[in-house]
Amino acid sequence: MFLSNFSKILRCKSSLIIGHPAADRITRKWHKKAIPVKWGKPGMGWTKLNFDGSCKVRTGNASIGGICRNHRAEFMLGYAGPIGRRTSTVAELAALQRGLELVLENGWYDVWLEGDAKSLVEIIVQRKLVRCKEVQKHVDDINLMIPELNNCIITHIYREGNRAADKLAQIGHQLQKPCIWRQSPPDEVLKIVREDAEGKVVLRTR
């Protein structure tokens, strides 16, 4: 089980871990070769929430998306929706905040949070203060919800390993109002969910 090395840490309520070995490692070195990236399953009894925000450069319109899966990589819940004119940072935080709300509503208390915005993950884990009041409000709200979980891990992953959440965030731009999927995700997301479950590796060339 991927959490075996962290059993002592995870006995503490709402432990936050960045740079988890199950997530793709972040490196500052320039990679000339493609980096293999794949989505990782959570441990048994855990729920994994992948989240993402999207912001259109031309219009400034933003949307959110996220997906919850279990240790078998089975779909549990997905969400998406427009949030008006927002920055990309606010969109990412709004996506995480909405995902946490849904996680708590469904009574899932051992949760692995994963997103592709490294700076955002660091803000949450390190409880950094930011100058933007709107951003800080989302950060504060998120930090109030996390202690309600029994155990919580938050990690960064490259976008190539966050494809399902990214696709839902893109779908959010097309919606008139927020939407939640509980039985099965949209077909274009279902395809990614199946690939993730099979352990598909996506090469990162950027």
Automatic annotation (TrEMBL):
It comes from Nelumbo nucifera (Sacred lotus). Residues 43-174 form the RNase H type-1 domain. InterPro entries: RNase_H-like, RNase_H-like_dom_plant, RNaseH-like_sf, RNaseH_domain, RNaseH_sf. This is RNase H type-1 domain-containing protein. The lineage of its organism: Eukaryota, Viridiplantae, Streptophyta, Embryophyta, Tracheophyta. One of its GO terms (molecular function) is RNA-DNA hybrid ribonuclease activity. CDD domains: RNase_H_like (cd06222). Pfam families: RVT_3 (PF13456).
